[in-house]
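Request from the bench team (R.T.):
"We need a structural guess for the complex before ordering more zinc ion. Sequence and SMILES attached. Just send the tokens back."

Command: build protein-zinc ion structure.
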Amino acid sequence: MLNLFKKKKCAMCGQKAAKPTEYINDREEKVIICYKCVPYAERRAFRRR
Ligand SMILES: [Zn+2]
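Reply to R.T.: structure attached below.
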């Protein structure tokens, strides 16, 4: 499980995150979002750290 976090997969598309950005989701969890999914994260009101 820990290895999955170290690989920094995008929480939105599930693929290896390129240019990952950390967001806090609505459950107050830290999530990694790749640059392609940033617009979706913004739309879901994820907070940028
Ligand atoms: Zn993504």
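Two things stood out. The pocket of zinc ion is lined by residues 10, 12-13, 15, 34, 36-37 (CB under 6 Å). The chain has a mean pLDDT of 83.
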